[in-house]
Inverse folding.
């Protein structure tokens, strides 16, 4: 099936309140154009350089999501380019986002990435460090947290469901509290192989790469995110 048919099939499965994010990392603009023509406006990249280049050579109404591990020294390039940073994962990164976005008096929209599976190979805040992290976020003027993102450990449906439930519980607990800079609106969890389970457990944004663009011919590295 082609990209257009893949998107149509996915949309037929997704509830209305769920945002479909096309994970377009490593994909050429021709493939993104096919997705755009099929109605996609949310695209996810995991390399800053690739996101910047694509954003400068593609449709202006696209919302670019940064979904990879973000290095502090690359943050400045995302200012005025990124719709949502999914991978806010440390106080040092938070401080750099605050610093770079303050220079242009813009607020960065972000998601807190939680390392829900406590995997050493993945970035993200550990559960026990979350409230200290939130205290730091609350001191910011140019960072706004819109929700949570997780990349769960590879496992079967039962294992996936366990991690999704755990994340949703944290999401709901934070939602009940009153913060200045934090509002739990987006729960970004679920990829090509597990998005239906994620939606059943409360996800309202799914990151789909292979399910839209097909198997990758090559990968530029970074955490698997689609």
């Amino acid at each position: 099936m082609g990209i257009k048919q893949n998107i149509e099939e996915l949309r037929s499965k997704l509830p209305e309140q769920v945002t479909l994010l096309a994970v377009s990392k490593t994909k050429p603009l021709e493939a993104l154009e096919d997705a755009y023509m099929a109605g996609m406006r949310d695209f996810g990249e995991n390399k800053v350089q690739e996101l910047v280049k694509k954003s400068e050579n593609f449709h202006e109404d696209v919302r670019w999501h940064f979904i990879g591990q973000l290095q502090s020294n690359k943050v400045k390039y995302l200012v005025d380019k990124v719709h949502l940073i999914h991978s806010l994962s440390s106080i040092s990164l938070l401080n750099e986002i605050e610093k770079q976005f303050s220079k242009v008096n813009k607020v960065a929209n972000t998601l807190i990435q939680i390392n829900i599976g406590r995997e050493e190979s993945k970035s993200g805040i550990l559960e026990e460090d979350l409230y200290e992290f939130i205290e730091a976020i609350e001191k910011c003027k140019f960072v706004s947290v819109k929700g949570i993102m997780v990349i769960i450990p590879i496992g079967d449906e039962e294992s996936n469901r366990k991690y999704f439930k755990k994340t949703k519980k944290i999401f709901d607990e934070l939602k009940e509290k009153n913060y200045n800079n934090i509002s739990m609106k987006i729960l970004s969890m679920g990829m090509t192989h597990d998005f239906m389970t994620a939606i059943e457990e409360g996800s309202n944004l799914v990151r789909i790469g292979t399910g839209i663009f097909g198997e990758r011919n090559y990968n530029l590295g970074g955490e698997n995110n689609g």
